[in-house]
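Usage

Read records sequentially. Each one opens with the input sequence:
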Amino acid sequence: MTTEQHDAYGEELARISQHQSEATTARFTVFQALAAVGIAPEQADEIVSQLEAGAVAGAHTWVSESSAPHGSEQRFEDGWWACGRCRVCC
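and closes with the structure output:
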């Protein structure tokens, strides 16, 4: 692994760690808010779990819809990313 790859990997790990920390803080805040209005911890956990599952499903859908079909030739993938369909590169 080159130094550049190592640095990029470390930066990605730092971003992941930051997102996890922010997610934990947000989850705790939501639990506090739900408790303040009288929602039982078990029900609050169910609500938060459903929200998180929906977020994961939405992200998975976005990734699968914005990627070239699995098994595509490299030329097709190159064109896929160049076309603007992915809403990432263009």
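Summary fields computed downstream for this record:
- The chain has a mean pLDDT of 83.
- Residues 1-39 form one domain.
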